[in-house]
Specification:
Layout (H helix, E strand, L loop, with lengths): L1 E2 L10 H22 L5 E5 L14 H15 L7 E7 L3 H7 L11 E4 L2 H9 L6 E6 L9 H7 L6 E8 L1 H11 L15 E2 L8 H11 L3 H10 L5 H16 L5 E7 L9 E7 L2 H23 L18 H13 L5 E2 H12 L5 H13 L3 E6 L22 E6 L3
Parallel strand pairs: 1-7, 2-3, 2-5, 3-4, 5-6
Antiparallel strand pairs: 6-9, 8-9, 10-12, 11-12
The structure holds S-adenosylmethionine (SAM).
């Protein structure tokens, strides 16, 4: 079912709340950490909306400005600076009016009326050496050009992170239309509400548009397998998401995704994808995704009842032994040892957010006890007691490091 997008800002719906929570729990940690690089941050909300919903709730621009002001006032960095920029095609006036009133000494936000895909390259062209964060929350998939994401990786920023709302089910529906494959009666590809569904017909331009969004032609084989009943709609969407993330991995080191389900037993409606090159950002976002999906399962899906089983971010039941086995297999692939943070971030990128990072450290403690891994710590002994160190947490400010490899014996 598609819906006129003018109703989008009437009141904030439950899946917008989830997106906002993901952003608002992550940004304070991100800003504080990245400000300590003593390089400024350029924060762009690429599909910013009105700034505020008609029911008075803050939209993503106001959420970010509020967090910016708090973080700058609390930062221990030398000259903390976060420049903000909001792009929207339709709501320039509302956006201007709704972003007044934030600390002027931190700089007024730049407001751009236009299309993200036409503005962003010029906007980023003089941000070399800076920390860039892009929040990408479109209605549909049309503007999600993979070619742009790929280019950003080569701009020479000090760091870049993106949080992308990818409507992977919307993509699969468009993909079916482009390849004349029937899906309308398939509940797996049904949508609660799709604002601005991408207009796609069975023609060459549509195929090209979808190739540009997906970053390749791999999606066509997925549609063929769906059409010949080798896979169902859920499997098709999952395969598309996996292959899309693999594409992003050609240019970025760490990719996470959180499927957004609204009700119990329901399959996801879209995915929030986090892209970064820094292990600490990846771990913070993974822990954030885990906590947010936990809240989601309890609050929305189980109407407040606690589930008897542990779930991962994909709502699969997780088993500690299984995570340990996966960790062992993963570590075995590397001939050299890896730092603890790099290992956690790479593990989550490979297998998804199966648990929180703290649980991985608990699992390592068991693995070390059982002689499955070798751990090298600096300092090797505790300064106070002289006993062997046991930590699995890296702390650069205290020169505390941990590297891990599979036991050779
Ligand atoms: C899902 S809403 C964003 C909601 C916003 N993140 C919030 O939390 O309030 C998508 C927004 O993208 C805008 N838009 C649509 N096409 C666009 C484009 N090509 N470039 C920039 N903005 C666009 C729409 O006007 C709409 O406000």
């Amino acid at each position: 079912m598609s819906k006129n997008n003018s109703s989008f800002f009437k009141s904030k719906n439950s899946w917008s709340e989830i997106k906002d929570k993901l952003l608002s729990y992550y940004l304070p940690q991100y800003f504080q950490k990245v400000l300590m690089t003593n390089k400024s941050i350029f924060y762009v909300d690429c599909f910013a909306g009105k700034g505020k919903f008609d029911d008075g709730k803050d939209g993503s621009p106001r959420i970010a400005l509020q967090i910016r002001d708090t973080c700058i006032s609390q930062s221990r960095a030398k000259n903390p600076k976060i420049d903000t920029c909001f792009i929207d095609l339709n709501y320039e006036d509302e956006l201007r009016a709704n972003t007044i009133g934030y600390s002027t000494k931190n700089g007024a936000p730049q407001i751009i009326s236009g299309k993200y895909e036409e503005q962003i390259e010029t906007l980023l062209s003089d941000k070399i050496g800076k920390n860039v964060f892009l929040y990408i929350d479109p209605y549909g998939i049309k503007a999600l050009d993979y070619g742009l994401f790929s280019k950003f990786a080569d701009y020479g920023f000090f760091s870049i992170e993106m949080l992308i709302n990818m409507n992977s089910f919307g993509f699969m529906r468009a993909a079916c239309r482009a390849m004349r494959v029937e899906y309308v009666l398939d509940e797996s590809l049904d949508e609660l509400v799709e604002y601005e569904p991408t207009q796609v017909d069975a023609n060459k331009q549509s195929i090209e548009l979808l190739n540009n969004i997906a970053g390749g032609e791999y999606w066509q084989d997925i549609v063929k397998d769906y059409n010949s009943n080798k896979i169902d709609g859920y499997q098709a969407e999952k395969r598309f998401s996996t292959e899309y993330k693999q594409c992003l991995r050609k240019k970025y080191t760490y990719i996470l995704d959180m499927p957004i389900c609204i009700m119990s037993k329901q399959h996801p409606k879209y995915r929030m994808i986090h892209v970064s090159n820094h292990e600490e950002g990846c771990i913070l976002m993974a822990d954030n995704m885990f906590s947010r999906s936990d809240e989601l399962f309890v609050e929305i899906q189980n109407q407040g009842q606690l589930s008897l089983f542990e779930h991962d971010v994909q709502n699969n039941v997780v088993d500690r032994d299984d995570i340990q086995q996966k960790m062992l297999n993963f570590i075995s692939k590397f001939s050299n040892s890896m730092t603890a943070n790099k290992l956690i971030a790479a593990f989550f990128t490979e297998y998804g957010v199966l648990c929180k990072s703290g649980e991985i450290r608990n699992i390592w403690a068991d693995m070390e006890k059982n002689g499955l891994i070798e751990v090298t710590r600096i300092p090797a002994t505790t300064p106070k007691t002289g006993k062997p160190s046991k930590f699995f947490t890296e702390d650069k400010s205290n020169n505390q490091s941990v590297t891990i490899e599979r036991s050779k014996s």
